[in-house]
Amino acid sequence: MGYNPALKSVYGTQTRYPHPNQQAIFALNDVVQPIMPETLPAPLALCSAVDAANTLANDPFISGIDPLLVPKVPVQERGKQRFNAIVAATEELVVELGIDNVSVHKVAKKAQVPAASVYQYFPSTGAIFAVVAEQHFRPAFNIIQELLDNTSIRTWQDLSEIVVDGAFEFYSRDKMSEMLFLGKFISPGVEDYAVSRLMRIIAWYMDNFSVLYKKADLEPLPEKLSLCIQIVETIFRRSFIIHNEITQHYRQECKIIVDSYLRGFFEEIEK
User: Where are the domains of the chain?
Assistant: First the structure.
């Protein structure tokens, strides 16, 4: 995916997009028309790049990943600072150039470190994007929980709507996630960790469906939820590529499809 000028208005200043890695990460000088903060969704609270890398290193769902996509987590404080700076520089380049135009040497130049320092922690740009993706993925659980806390969950339909609404809110509040997960170009560092992200989301939803139904009745549900989530991602990707956003039309279409797909399963166990 190439450069997207619309992102400059979203990532234009630090006040609208605070980032844990460094100050003024997206302080771009040539913002054409700043958007007033009150018109923007609340920014996601991101963990540090080091914390994200530690999550990947200890994720039980991750196996068989190409070593070139596995970051090396620093132990010393100085190394952690450099690690965070490299990831922050990568995000800046994504906004400026697009994901497919980011290289290790460009990252090194932006972060003001030797290329060898980047390779010390990241065998490839894919390994950097794996960390960026994890940083931006983790807030999804908070968004889903917010929806659960504000919804009276009485039926499976209530939860199936949150499957769609949770994804919609997640992408609507974070343009970087739209680029990472829905763009025309998906980095191997994002794609190869997709199973882990999917399994964690499914486990989260299963905990909530288990409140309404016996666990024994829900044994086939994880696979069905997997398909639902992947369908939603596919439809949202189409919307993002065509409209540069996820429109309400595509959101509603997802709800219809997910409801139709799950209805037969739940009607069967409710007999």
Answer: 6-135, 137-269
